[in-house]
Design goal:
Elements: E1 6-10, H1 16-28, E2 33-37, H2 44-53, E3 58-64, H3 69-76, E4 80-86, H4 93-100, E5 109-110, H5 116-128, H6 132-143
Parallel strand pairs: 1-2, 1-3, 3-4, 4-5
Helix pairs in contact: 1-5, 5-6
């Protein structure tokens, strides 16, 4: 795995702390990844172009407030999308509900509020089904 297999898309630079939580777990498992800041609202065309060109198998989308980013990503690609709601004005409940209440056919796997680490762990479990080396690293970590 040399090309990024996970891409982390955050809606704002202010989500950097959560991005770092994701990155720390992906690095621990040696999973190639990349991250970008692209708002579903402010950078719609750039987001569309990015989703078309990325070779990543899993997208982790981090967003707060209206939290449209994970759903928009899921509507534009057939890749696995994992949404991470960010705490904000309503403690993150607004973002959580926006991410989990997607219409049928536009699935977004969703983890807890601000829980970037679980998003990375979920991505690793999904990818381990397709990669024997990663599956072995996962088994070793779980067995220790």
């Amino acid at each position: 795995m040399t090309e990024p297999v996970v891409t982390i898309i955050s809606g704002s630079k202010s989500d950097a702390e959560i991005v770092e939580k994701v990155v720390s777990v992906l690095k621990e498992y040696e999973v190639p990844h990349t991250s970008v800041v692209l708002s579903a609202h402010r950078n719609a065309k750039e987001l569309d172009a990015y989703l078309q060109k990325t070779s990543a198998k899993v997208i982790i989308a981090i967003a707060g407030l209206a939290a449209a980013l994970p759903g928009v990503c899921a509507s534009k690609t057939k890749k696995v999308v994992i949404g991470v709601p960010v705490s904000s004005k309503l403690g993150g409940l607004d973002a959580l509900l926006s991410i989990v209440q997607m219409p049928s056919g536009v699935p977004v796997a969703t983890v807890g509020i601000d829980n970037g680490k679980n998003a990375a762990h979920l991505a690793i479990r999904i990818l381990a089904m397709l990669n024997d080396d990663l599956a072995e690293r996962l088994k070793e970590k779980l067995d220790s």
